[in-house]
Amino acid sequence: MQDRLQTLRERFDSEISAAADAAALSRIRAGYLSRKGGALSQLLRSLKEVDPAERPAVGDSLNSLKRYIEERLASAEDSLTATPVARGLDVTLPGRMLPLGSAHPVNQVRREIEEIFLEMGFSLAQGPEVETDYFNFVALNFPVDHPARDTQDTFYLDGGLLLRTHTSPVQIRTLQARKPPLKIIALGKVYRRDSDVSHSPMFHQVEGLAVAEGITFADLKGTVLTFARRIFRDDTQVRFRPSYFPFVEPGAEFDLSCVLCGGKGCATCKRSGWLEMGGAGMVHPEVLRLSGHDPQKVSGFAFGLGVDRIAMLKFGIDDIRLLFENDLRFLNQFSGS
Amino acid sequence: METQLPPLALGAKLTEVGIPLDSMESFGDDTIYHFDVTTNRPDCMNHLGLGRELSVAEGTRLKEPPVDLDDSARPAKPLASLAVEAPELCGRYTALVIEKVKVGASPSWLARRLEAIGLRPINSVVDATNYVLWEMGHPLHAFDLARLSGRAIRVRRAKTGERLTTLDGVERKLAPDMLVIADDRKAVAVAGVMGGRDSEINGATTEVLLESAHFQAASVRKTSRALGLHTDASHRFERGADVEVTLKAASRCAALIAEVTGGVVARGVLEDRQAPATRREIMLRPERVRGLLGLAIAESVMQDILQRLGCGVHRDSGEAWKIVPPSFRGDLTLEEDLVEEIARHHGYEKIPVTLPRVFLFPEGRSESEKRLDRIRQGVRHCGFSEALNLSLVSEADNRAFGDASGGIQVLNHLNESENRLRFSLIPGLLRNLSHNLNRNLNEGRLFEAGRVFRAPASPGELPEEEEKLGLVLGGKISARHWSEAERPPDFFDLKGALELTVGLLGVSQMEWKSAQRPFLVPGRAAEIRASGRLLGWAGELSPPTASAWNLDCVALAGEISLVELSAALPEGASFRHTPLARTPGVSRDLSLILDATHSYREVEAAIRSVEGIPVASVELFDRYEGAPIPAGKLGLSVRIVFRAPGRTMVSEEISEFLDRIIHRLRERLGVVLRGN
Fold first, then answer.
1. Starting from the edge strand earliest in sequence, which strands make up the sheet with A248-257, in order?
2. What pLDDT does A337 receive?
3. B63 pLDDT band (50/70/90 cuts)?
4. Which chain A positions have a beta carbon within 8 Å of B421's beta carbon?
5. How confident is the model at residue B573 (pLDDT cuts 50, 70, 90)?
6. Which pLDDT does position B530 carry in this prediction?
7. What's the whole-model pTM score?
8. What is the ipTM of this complex?
């Protein structure tokens, strides 16, 4: 009798494991538990044929098998009806979002620029936005009463102060405070009296300065090229043209092969294949001398370029004023949120 | 000169050597080029100068304009007198006299050439002077000699109160720091800027005195600015003219005047020169050229470039060469200037590409930079988007947010709404908030991290620039999920954002204290402190302030100083490991009733003040006013967790802790337990 119970249990186990739907479960339920033809009911009826001495033990086994079958059937039926197939979540409904604000495109680019130069071994330097005539002009070899100052469109404050027109005063503050060798970049706000589609009275510049023994113009070209390829595309070309800034000699302006068309010519580069990017050159000996360095012993290069312009090129923004209007529909385009 | 280059290539060639082509246009069969000549190259602001650069770049020969004079038998000396009385402002004054001129319209070739470069032909004499200015770059002026009183030219400073009507018909008031050309009675021209109307060439003129002088650059610039008069002449003089060219230019122009007016040039020249001869000698070491450029370049190439540019090259002995630049290149004074000359004509593109071989200890980002990054991230994670505003605001902006002085003035501002440096980030952020809410955005959350400005302690010093963090929040808090409802924002939305952000830096204890600000709703405003330092303020904007910024909704704002926040940070690492508690904590809830004048902070402080009790945390989970709590009272429910390190507490112990806490609360704050 105990053997028959064991065989029955094994048969049940394999059947219930194979049962895939409610119909199969109800067939199994009827096959084992039905009062009339159920396998357990039949065994129960045959209990009287068992030796009376063994009857209580077999009865117990029979009851525990019955409980086992009932429990497994119940749990199988439960799990079948609770399955999401019947009444599941609409998983296409929007998720519960945590709010996420965006980082300003100029500051995103600012960080990217800083990271590139940090990896190239430059340090970050800073200076005040309100400057003296000395740091903004005199120490940068802008003669007093020289037309070169006219190109700077300076905002003046009381007491001979001004809003810095470029980040170059940080060159001077660095040269006064540190001994070569040094490699720094200074990134920050600068101000010029100008306002239209391509000019904002406030914008951002990044300035690079390297001063040490044996720094060359070739090093300047390599540094700008490396930066240009990291910030834009790795096939970017840089073109240096002679130009004039009082604080560098030899002086240059540099253009990048158009970052949008790759130099083939498009609307952004006015069909020229090139984008004007910034100014550069070898630190003028007078600048080194005024800050206490011997231009016969050390040399240096400096370069400057517009951060906002880089952001505009990277993000395809055509009006600089959008950058400072702070329309959330605009700002949130650059966050991925 | 004769160039083989087609127009576009010509522009590109000059661009390569540092004279960038701005644009080109056609004029009949000719091409007009617009070049952006940098301020250091006045020698290129004319056709001869550009031709010279091009001839060097192209390797062709330059043909200079003819300067031979057909002198008449009559000497010039007796015809006029000349005296330079201010030699510090006029180093050389050269004059030629042309007699028997018949002034009329210029021949068509001359008129057409002037028109091509945008000049209006006036008469044959004036046109000739303009022509030579654009041809050779030296400004010239023609006087009607018969109208100069005493036939005299005196170069002197203007007298106080002296007046002169210039060619443009404007009466100018002169000052003693201005240089004038005068006859023996009065000023007849502003030196280097513009001539006077009384002595101008007209149809009746028969004798011309042609001036070709050298005026001091800074003086011309000052005078031109003081008079608000910028002319082709002043533009060149203030950039530096060539003292050696005056006679050459005068001769060229006199010959041209004679040609176009049928006049005769008198023999000899009137001249007063006190400027020494121009001779600069610059040392040049070929090794220095190579070293500065990082370029292997042959000495023969260097020498060739310099010579074609008109420099004398003397290679006597030793390594250093002596270079004598031409007189018209006043910009060449240093060895580095010559390095540039060599580099730009050799080609910047030939310089190799290397990286600095400099070994430096990498400094990385500073702690304060890193903190600023964390702060920006923290605020963004609270849903605030980053704004960048102009540092220029209005006086009213500054006054509204606490700067009674109105802020630091910008003297030459572009407009009244941007005439001060900002004292606070909030006015700009509120403008952004209003801009966004007016464009159908439901909710606006914005922040900015940037500098604000305060007047210096003593005049002449730089203003104080302080890095601040500003937050604004307004409109409706949108539902984060379709299952939630939107609601107006409140003080605690802003406080939570600030707590999270500041917490990221390791400041866990911020002290919030009710405070007054004229721009905030009384009772919904707080000052924020940490480690005893005042970080800033936060609160709900008062209705008048909100409406001044066109906001018709609840708006909250807060501003903290990042400088003060840095100073309030704990020393060393901001986060420290503490061993995890292995024993379970026991929590008990207390429902308290107390006077509504008390703050939650007092309750928590009272609980924590009981000595010898292991309180692990105190958390507020309910706050209730109104029935059944009596008026003027407040219900607070707090959950206190006790945890004793290393052992399990028994319930008698906990009961005793609670009794002592309740006792302290009753004693300090008059608290009663709810339900008792």
1. A123-125, A182-191, A202-212, A299-306, A274-283, A248-257, A238-242
2. 47
3. confident
4. 130, 157
5. low
6. 92
7. 0.84
8. 0.88
Q: Which residues of B touch A254 (CB under 8 A)?
A: none
CA distance B255 to B260: 9
* Whether A270 contacts chain B with CB within 8 A: no
Of the candidate ranges A235-244, B120-129, B138-147, B452-461, the one whose mean pLDDT is the lowest: B452-461
List chain A residues with CB under 8 Å of B354.
Answer: 216, 218-219, 221-222
B477 in Cβ contact with B555 (< 8 Å): no
Q: How far apart are CA A301 and CA A283, in angstroms?
A: 5
* Residues contacting B329, CB < 8 A, separation 6+: B43, B309, B310, B311
Closest CA to B477 of B383, B377, B381: B383
- Which of A27-36, A112-121, B619-628 shows the lowest mean pLDDT across its residues? A27-36
Helix (H) or strand (E) holding A308: helix A307-315
Say if the Cβ atoms of A201 and B414 lie within 8 Å: yes
Which of helix, strand or coil describes residue B459? coil
Give me Rg for the CA atoms of chain B: 40
Residue A329, chain B, CB below 8 Å: the answer is: yes
CA distance linking residue B396 with residue B408, whole number of Å: 12
Of chain A, the end-to-end C-alpha distance in Å amounts to: 70
**Cβ of A103 under 8 Å from any chain B Cβ?**
yes
Residue B214 dihedral angles phi and psi, to the nearest 5° = -120, 115
* Percent share of chain B, pLDDT over 70: 99
Strand ranges (DSSP E) for B160-250? Answer: 163-165, 171-173, 179-182, 187-190, 194-195, 208-215
Q: Which of B15, B7, B59 is nearest to B38 (CA)?
A: B15
Closest CA to A158 of A177, A128, A133, A122: A133
Residue B325, SS3 per DSSP: coil
Side chain identity, residue B642: F
Element (H, E) at B555: strand B555-561
- Substitution target from A116, A328, A331, A337 for chain B, most B beta carbons within 10 A: A328
Helical (H) or strand (E) element with B12: helix B7-16
**Per-residue pLDDT at A225:** 98
The mean predicted confidence, pLDDT, of chain A is 89
Q: What is the mean pLDDT of residues B391-400?
A: 96
d(CA A99, CA B481): 11
With 60 as the cut, is the pLDDT of residue A183 above it? yes
Q: How far is B381 from chain A (nearest CA, A)?
A: 5
B272 phi, psi to nearest 5 deg: -130, 110
Residues of A in contact with B358 (CB under 8 A): 121, 181, 183, 210, 212, 215
What is the token pair recorded at B164?
């002169």
Token output for A192 = 């010029």
Rounded CA separation B128/B121 (Å): 10
Q: Is A161 on the interface with B (CB under 8 A)?
A: yes
Question: Per-residue DSSP letters for A113-152?
Answer: HHHHHHHTT-EEE---SEEEHHHHTGGGT--TT-GGGGGG
Residue B621, SS3 per DSSP:
strand
The burial class, CB within 10 Å (0-12 / 13-18 / 19+), for B651 is exposed
Residue in B closest to A308 by C-alpha: B388
Within 8 A of A189 by CB-CB distance, chain B residues are 391, 450-451
Separation in Å, CA B393 to CA B318, B423, B453: 62, 9, 11
B118 Cβ contact partners less than 8 Å away, ≥ 6 residues apart: none
- Best-predicted range by mean pLDDT among A150-154, B242-246, B438-442? B242-246
What stretch of H or E contains B523?
Answer: strand B520-530
Structure tokens at A136: 């903004």
